[in-house]
Design a protein that fits this description.
8 strands, alpha+beta, Beta-Lactamase, 6-stranded antiparallel β-sheet
Length: 599
């Protein structure tokens, strides 16, 4: 079988005689593309990826509120959680020697835009790789293209490499959709390319009436993808209109040349691609080699989990898996290539609970790492404000419990009630609407625990009261915990956590872990201030003293002010009120002037 690689990049427009396939016969007749889109959207499994992609990609400002919403998407998927952590700890993004263990902390450092790009790429990969062997390999190729694009963007010093990753991931979306939803037609396209010596563009048009890129663009628009991604689905070689479009096209062509062409010792496929893009990208051969190595290393773990070796990613195996749909051709592994036909495949629907490290020494290690990270970010020297600290702390409770839902409630400004402020868990978004209580014993067990200032998890530490049992049943919980947060003698809020009705109750070590996190956060907040009004957004002011900072740290902050940085920004990052910063600056200048006068 001769691969169509030598013809893939030749400009071949569909013949004009076939233009009737492209246009409707009358105004009311849908096009071939529209008909295929309707069929895809009608598939029973389609809304899952559609809604997930829309949730991840809908325009949100790059702020902490967006991170709160994205955290609930990311933490539902264990592989996505790991991806976010791995990215934040990579050399490109890492800002300190400390390894980040909290996904919320990682997202705060990366920003909502970068996390949205990561989420969309991985959600699409995880969904579509499970549909068929051919599609699994196509998705792995898409992931390679995405990694090629990111690595190239980093070498070109683009400001957002993850946007390039997303563009690369969806560059081949049209072929993925045809392979996944129309396998018979996809096999016929491959047969046309093989037997009739037709290029991909003509073969696709002959069978479908449109090209892969047109379907990819239509679906990207339907999903509400960023404009750069929509354009990248049709980015065509070095002539693409934007830098990121050129990078997506280059990454796509590089993947094809290296992984979908049959090896030929007389031909340097990567060099051919590099030559075509030389003027637009100005990359050296060594840099392209670095792109290939780094992308393969990044993708290696995913290959292993999908039971695919790199040598499997050859066009012959891809064509063979697709043509089996027609029952006309059966692929055999190339010489020396391991066959994975009989290897155990990943579960069709892997759950977060199945993958999450929830037992024994692994859980103890996770709790230790998360606790240490909470202790670091709550310390005044971290520069994190309290809102971010709280989000990181409730993630530590959510993952380290693990719990089905964790909600942080805050005292209202008039101190008469409680309102949900942060929440994590698949159904916490809906539940938060119910977490609006008057601070009265008549309003349920959460206000009762707050007024008593005593943490409790029922029915672990005592039996349910009648009121608590009704509350747990209304939530569908096996039990629940309420952990009041008291700072400087004043109630700030509480942490609520629970598990589903059929889940085991937490043990004593789990509850001790939750209490230690709450206590550590309180101690950290109190260490920041002593005698100064400190407020958390949306909460009443808590009077807890003046900041406890060593002279060197104070000097750093004063120097930042003298260099012209805004006092509000410096104060927010250091956890120091602006009036106090201004006073420190005045004292410093007065001392400096006095010193000059005495010289």
């Amino acid at each position: 079988m001769t691969p169509p690689s030598s013809r893939r990049h030749v400009a071949q427009s569909p013949p004009q005689a076939n233009s009737a396939n492209r246009e409707p016969q009358d105004a009311g007749e849908p096009t071939a593309l529209q008909l295929r889109m309707r069929q895809i959207l009608a598939e029973s499994d389609f809304p899952a990826i559609s809604q997930a992609a829309l949730d991840a990609l809908r325009h949100m400002p790059d702020d902490d509120a967006s991170i709160q919403r994205l955290a609930n998407i990311v933490l539902r998927d264990y592989s996505l959680t790991l991806k976010v952590l791995r990215t934040a700890n990579s050399a490109y993004y890492r800002r300190s020697e400390q390894t980040i263990q909290s996904a919320a902390h990682a997202m705060l450092l990366l920003g909502a835009r970068t996390v949205r790009h990561l989420a969309a790429s991985l959600l699409a990969f995880e969904h579509y790789r499970k549909r068929s062997p051919a599609l699994k390999e196509l998705m792995l190729l898409s992931l390679l293209t995405a990694n090629h694009a990111r690595e190239t963007a980093m070498r070109r010093k683009l400001p957002d490499p993850e946007e390039a990753h997303l563009c690369g991931m969806f560059r081949n979306l049209g072929e993925v959709l045809v392979s996944g939803y129309f396998p018979a037609e996809y096999a016929r396209i491959l047969r046309h390319m093989e037997e009739r010596r037709k290029g991909e563009g003509i073969a696709t048009f002959d069978i479908l009436g449109f090209q892969f890129e047109e379907l990819g663009q239509a679906m990207a628009l339907h999903w509400g993808m960023p404009e750069s991604v929509v354009a990248a689905t049709r980015a065509d070689g070095p002539s693409a209109g934007s830098d990121i479009g050129v990078i997506a096209a280059f990454a796509h062509d590089l993947t094809y040349a290296v992984y979908r062409r049959d090896a030929d010792p007389r031909r340097d496929d990567a060099a051919e691609v590099l030559t075509r893009y030389a003027r637009r990208l100005n990359l050296t051969r060594e840099q392209v080699s670095g792109v290939l190595r780094a992308a393969l290393q990044e993708t290696k773990e995913v290959f292993a989990s999908a039971k695919v070796t790199v040598d499997d990613l050859r066009l012959k195996r891809l064509n063979g898996a697709a043509m089996e749909v027609l029952g006309r051709w059966s692929a055999t592994p190339a010489d020396g290539v391991e066959s994975h036909a009989d290897a155990p495949q990943p579960s069709d629907q892997p759950s977060l609970e199945a993958e999450r490290p929830v037992q024994g020494a692994e859980m103890a290690r996770l709790r230790t790492e998360l606790s240490a990270e909470v202790a670091r970010v709550v310390h005044p020297s971290s520069g994190e404000d309290l809102n971010r600290v709280i989000l990181i702390a409730i993630e530590a409770i959510f993952r380290g419990g693990p719990f089905d839902r964790v909600i942080f409630c805050m005292i209202t400004p008039d101190r008469s009630g409680l309102r949900a402020r942060y929440w994590l868990g698949a159904t916490a978004e809906q539940l938060r609407e119910r977490f609006s209580f008057d601070l009265s014993p008549r309003d349920g067990p959460v206000p009762v625990a707050m007024l008593r200032r005593q943490s409790i998890y029922v029915p672990v530490e005592r039996d349910f009261t009648a009121q608590e049992l009704r509350f747990a049943q209304s939530l569908g919980s096996s039990g629940f915990g309420v952990f009041p947060v008291v700072v400087g003698g004043k109630l700030l809020g509480c942490v609520f956590c629970d598990r589903p009705w059929n889940a085991p109750l937490p043990d004593a070590s789990t509850l001790a872990y939750v209490r230690s996190l709450c206590d550590g956060a309180v101690r950290g907040i109190e260490a920041r201030t002593s005698g100064v009004v400190h407020s958390v957004a949306g909460a009443p002011s808590v009077i807890v003293g003046t900041p406890v900072l060593d002279p060197a740290r104070k000097g750093e902050l004063i120097l930042r002010l003298l260099r012209g940085e805004e006092a509000e920004q410096v104060g927010r990052e250091a956890g120091v009120p602006v009036p106090l910063l201004e006073q420190w600056r005045k004292d410093f200048l007065a001392g400096a002037i006095a010193g000059l006068g005495g010289s």
